[in-house]
Amino acid sequence: MSEKTKKPQKLKARLPRGFVDREAADIRAVNEMTAKIREVYERYGFDPVETPLFEYTDALGKFLPDADRPNEGVFSLMDDDEQWMSLRYDLTAPLARHVAENFNEIQLPYRTYRAGYVFRNEKPGPGRFRQFMQFDADSVGAPGVQSDAEMCMMMADTMEALGIKRGDYVIRVNNRKVLDGVMEAIGVGGEENFNRRLTVLRAIDKLDKFGTEGVSLLLGEGRKDESGDFTKGAGLNADQIEKVLFFVGITDYAQSAVHLAELVAGTEKGAEGVDELNTIRSLVLGAGYGPDRIKIDPSVVRGLEYYTGPVYEAELTFDVTNEKGEKVVFGSVGGGGRYDGLVSRFMGQPVPATGFSIGVSRLMTALKNLGKLGADEVLAPVLVTVMDGDVESMGRYQRFTQALRNEGIRAEMYQGNWKKFGNQLKYADRRGSPIAIIQGGDERAQGVVQIKDLIEGKRLSGEITDNAEWREARVAQDVVPEAELVAKVREILEAQAEDRRRAKQVNV
């Protein structure tokens, strides 16, 4: 075959690695969830703001351009005036740029929320995507820790608004300054010990996974895992390890606060951090949020090189089964803290800020585990079938469809090959349509329509085995005047809804 007669190569449809297509059920679940979150944020006096997907790369803060291209971690391109732009890595850095750029116009404290996609140019893996959604709330220009305490209370209220009952979640709170004080108190403060402190932080972060004994090894010489691989430790001595383990092992803050204050006494920031934790604890207790909802927990070490004060994490405490079939605690669904340095990068002056970010996909997974999403199931549309294809008949079918829509009922007129009526009912079945509307020539002459209850029909069809009995029963089918179409459809839909409610009550 010559080059000219060769068939053109078909383009292969392929989804980029690390990205997902979202179907109707997931989209509706996210919308349902974010609406409940938004309602809580609005109640606290936060307003929405939206920033673009792209920012100039240097504005992102964590990732600055190399001589010829930005660092790995962000998706970047150069625009026509040879400036590097990147897809946003999170929602906080764009907010910092927005505040700095509009600083003279906005009202401080600037209390905002926003939901949107963020992008990570990282190797994708199971449950690790390059595009995912976050839902953030931030307060910029509020220096006191009462704004941090309020953020924690708002997160607790959000968990409960989503149907997560008390005891299944906890908002855990720590303070960067306290940990800095502990590091200074054991002799690993200062710039010269930066890498060593990171090793200590990583060790503390493994507390849930390896327990006190494993963390103790990582704080000391190192730890060998089951495969024989060795992880080098922070090289702390026994006295240093004991002090770190005391700090992260605090479970009853009220009893340990005095000892903690003694540990960090004389350090530059430690005592200030303890005072801030005490203030947060007093504020949340005064507002009725006990340690079953908001808990001071020194083992929280999330992003401590980024935050400048209080840090907090929303953790779900119920068990789920992982890929290996093991029961594990679900864990974190969001976190945040005080980041007083981020807006200041643009301003040359201190601008206090605190915020919280929810991982939407992860939280949605948790809510599905709890059966808290999809309660308001979206009903498939009523199908108006097509028996005749002439213009007058099609106009009549369209009129039926619009009459249903005008009364708030989901409806669609069949758009495929109408000549094979069986295909229309198969389509209705695959769509999950609750009702089919049928009008042929005989019905049109009489000014009536057939209304077929497809849900009841499916149920009855399992009880009828004889064809003659089927024809005689006219399974779940009514004939009504055209003028009564909408009222009859609504009556059937309400009966179906009542059946679903009863079925749910039986299952519960």
UniProtKB/TrEMBL annotation:
Substrates-to-products reaction catalysed: tRNA(His) + L-histidine + ATP = L-histidyl-tRNA(His) + AMP + diphosphate + H(+)
Compartments where found: Cytoplasm
Cited InterPro entries: aa-tRNA-synth_II, aa-tRNA-synth_II/BPL/LPL, Anticodon-bd, Anticodon-bd_dom_sf, His-tRNA-ligase, HisRS-like_core, HisRS/HisZ, HisRS_anticodon
An example molecular function term from Gene Ontology annotations: ATP binding
Annotated keywords: Aminoacyl-tRNA synthetase, ATP-binding, Cytoplasm, Ligase, Nucleotide-binding, Protein biosynthesis
Biological processes per GO annotation: histidyl-tRNA aminoacylation
Ligand binding (L-histidine): D90, L91, T92, R120, Q134, D138, R302, Y306, Y307
Domain Aminoacyl-transfer RNA synthetases class-II family profile: 1-381
Top-level class of the enzyme under EC nomenclature: ligase
PANTHER family per record: HISTIDINE--TRNA LIGASE (PTHR11476:SF7), HISTIDYL-TRNA SYNTHETASE (PTHR11476)
Name of the protein described by the UniProt record: Histidine--tRNA ligase
Organism per entry: Ciceribacter selenitireducens ATCC BAA-1503
Lineage: Bacteria, Pseudomonadati, Pseudomonadota, Alphaproteobacteria, Hyphomicrobiales
